[in-house]
Design a protein that fits this description.
The complex is a heterodimer of chains A (107) and B (141). With 107 residues, chain A is of the alpha/beta class. Chain A has a single domain, classed as Udp-n-acetylmuramoylalanyl-d-glutamate--2,6- Diaminopimelate Ligase, Chain: A, domain 1. Chain A is built from five helices and five strands; from the N terminus they run αββαβαβαβα. Chain B has 141 residues and is of the alpha+beta class. Chain B has a single domain, classed as Histidine kinase-like ATPase, C-terminal domain (Heat Shock Protein 90). Helix content of chain B is 35%, strand content 28%. In chain B, a hairpin with a 3-residue loop joins strand 4 and strand 5. The chains are: A alpha/beta (107), B alpha+beta (141). At the A-B interface, helix 2 and helix 3 of A face helix 1, helix 2 and helix 5 of B.
């Protein structure tokens, strides 16, 4: 399933989608080094962190998208940066447990 | 032959934590231009990013020197920071001396050095208290 298909099916908000691609796995975490060490290329990464560093982590770990849970969102400036860097970002009011469950259904 | 080695040097700015990672993202781009496999690029750039973050947190930045040969990518990270007191302790997952403001950004989980080791094929740390630290990592191509 692609990032856009996932967003539509589960009514997630698309903050930016510069590079729609296949979601091949999932990872949940807010400790950035932990995510860097464990997330796999192509994973959808569910987090509640919204600082600029998540964009570097997403780029380097090569995740298919960032999914922000619990109503967290990104500043306009960061959405622009994510777009420029080709990082897909979705957002939802759902908590990380529910988001994980949604994702697990599709994998 | 020396001709077959490509070198990159990046300055790691120690003043702005939020933009840390620029050198790693640049490295990723440069390695991609060289046609290196995505998995190798991923390992090299993650190892470099962890090192870069460490340099910003602990040493006010430093310099990253990269050499790419046909066999491997060598990343040398040099700083003039406080040095590492006990390298064995620093290598343990979960051990961290990062300040709270850094932790609130999602760093300082004590995973930096372990991740660097995990993602490189060979890693060496030279550190002297009050002088600085040099970390050399090799990632096979």
């Amino acid at each position: 399933m692609t990032v856009s298909e996932f967003a539509i099916k589960h009514s997630l908000k698309t903050l930016c989608l510069p590079d729609d691609r296949e979601i091949t796995g999932g990872y949940v975490g807010d400790l950035l080094s932990w995510v860097m060490g464990r997330a796999q290329s192509g994973d959808a990464w569910i987090t509640i962190m919204s600082n600029q560093n998540i964009l570097a982590v997403a780029t380097l770990a090569d995740v298919s998208c960032i999914i922000l849970g619990e109503g967290v969102t990104l500043d306009e400036e960061l959405i622009k940066t994510a777009n420029d860097k080709g990082i897909n970002v979705l957002a939802s009011e759902a908590d990380t447990f529910k988001l994980s469950a949604m994702l697990a259904c599709e994998l | 032959m020396d001709n077959n080695i490509i070198r990159f040097t990046y300055n790691v700015d120690g003043t702005d934590f939020t933009s840390a990672g620029q050198a790693s993202v640049m490295l990723k781009k440069n390695l991609r231009q060289l046609g290196i496999s995505p998995d190798t690029i991923r390992r090299a750039s993650i190892a470099m990013y962890e090192g870069e973050i460490n340099m910003v947190i602990h040493a006010d930045g430093g310099v990253a020197e990269i050499e790419v040969s046909e066999e491997c990518i060598t990343i040398m990270l040099k700083d003039s920071g406080p040095g590492i007191k006990d390298i064995n302790q620093a290598m343990q997952e979960g051990f961290s001396t990062a300040p709270d403001d850094v932790r609130s950004l999602g760093f300082g989980a004590g995973m930096g050095l372990p991740n660097m080791k995990r993602y490189s094929d060979h890693m060496e740390i030279e550190s002297e208290l009050g002088v600085g630290t040099t970390i050399t990592m090799k990632i096979n191509i």
